[in-house]
Amino acid sequence: xxxxxxxDHSGMNSWSYALMILSALLLWGLLxxxxxxxxxxxxxxxxxxxxxxxxxxxxxxxxxxxxxxGEIDAEQYHADLRILRERHDHPLAT
Length: 94
Hints:
By secondary structure, the protein is mostly helical. Helices cover 62% and strands 0% of the residues.
């Protein structure tokens, strides 16, 4: 009679299987979390543009802020805006 050798599942018991399953689930969970956070960060930065404070505001933006704060009146705002737009290097200049 020939006896078969059972290798006892490569020496793994129920705790080994549980640990293997748990570590696989943690690995996949970590991977999915990293991907989701990376996509959210990429979409947030694409939506908001460059970080605040990274680029200095344009002259028109500064003028608009002064007008919004009440430092200058509408007449002064429009006069200064016209002067800014008449510059030869302004994109809206004719």
